[in-house]
Amino acid sequence: MCSERTDVKIDVRDTTRCASIRLEFRMFWKVLGFIVLIWIALALLGTIIKGVFWLVVAGAIVLGLVWLYKAISSNDDHPSLKY
After folding, report:
1. Which of 54, 80, 55 is closest to 67 using CA atoms?
2. pTM to 2 decimals?
C-alpha cells in the first residue's frame, strides 16, 4: 500500500494516494480531538453552572432574610435597606 521502500520504483499516483490517505487520517484525528475538547468543555461548564446556581440561590435567600430582618427591626416609618 504506502510502503517506505526505496528500492522499488514508485508511481506518482501511488504517492499522491498515500499523501491523500495521510491527510485524511490527520484530519480525522483533528476532528475527533475537537469533538473531545468540546465535550470536556461542556461537561466542565455544566458542573460549574450547577454549583454556581445553588450558590446564587443560597445568596438570594440570605440577602432576602437580611432585608427582612432590617425591615422588621427598623425604628423608622420608612425602613432603610441600605448597608
Report:
1. 80
2. 0.47
